[in-house]
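Re: weekly structure request thread

Next one in the queue (180 aa):
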Amino acid sequence: MLTVILLLAVGLLLFLIYRRHYDHSILLNCGFPILPARHVVLENIDIFQSPNAIFTFGSIAKQYGPVFGVMQGGLPTVVTSDVDVIRDISLKYFSSFHGKMPVPIDPDPVSAESVHMFASRGARWKRMRMITSQAMSAKNMKQLFPIVEESVFSFMNFVEKLPHHKKVEAHKCALPKPHL
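Done, posted below.
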């Protein structure tokens, strides 16, 4: 019985080592630099969980370039700040790069109606993305810009008229007034 448990443990360890090597090879075959692992098991997951992750990735990008690979635990992850790569992923290849990594405590991203576009996955994400991409076209954004600009100027004029020495709750100022 002990030998069976030992063989299973060794087999599992060998499988995990093989899987980790395979995941690393995925990043190596992409051709961009890979951030070396900080920890043997967790690799670089601490960077992703840090509240200063965006600043850490900014300093790493200065050293490795705008696109680099990093292992997020056992998951190969590509980090980019290259606008062209982001545009290609968002517009041309969105069917291959939809959704986000699952979070165990989130509602089911496929079937839950309360899940918004950024948390959805699969066919639901594709459908929501297709609908919003039509609404967010360059033509529609150009039509919307004057309305947003006029609203901002109107709000700024309102704020400038407020007394400078008195505290003002900005949230109440931004709420729409009921029309009577």
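The longest strand covers residues 67-72. Strands lie at 67-72, 75-80.
Next request, please.
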